[in-house]
Amino acid sequence: MKLQPDKSDAQTITAHGPGWVAINNEKVEHSVVVGSRGERFAWDCERFEDLNSSHFAQFASLGAELVIFGSGVRIRFPRPQWLQPLMALRTGVETMDTAAACRTYNILAGEGRHVLAALLIETPAAGD
């Protein structure tokens, strides 16, 4: 009986906290897109209120089977019209808070799925 997980070559989200995530142990303090096939780029949004359809349309050309949207410290759903390019390609979109999105991405990437995590990293408010 095998008790050890298979080794995955996918990027891994190794930690997260208020205002940051770590990808393969590298701390990132801005919104980011990370993919199981090596995709990684800054995502140009600092707050949920900054999002629009162009933020999601850019994922359509990447060919992922699933986009996991980490909506920040709490769950907030994107407007359906923002997701039209992904729905047209039958690309799945799941929304959850950023911490849950990190965990879910790691599980699916470890299974060999082509998945993207679009992680909204919000700057913590003073006193948080």
From TrEMBL:
Q: Which residues form a coiled coil?
A: none
From what superkingdom does this record's organism come? Bacteria
Its recorded name reads Mth938-like domain-containing protein
Which InterPro entries does this one have? MTH938-like_sf (IPR036748), NDUFAF3/AAMDC (IPR007523)
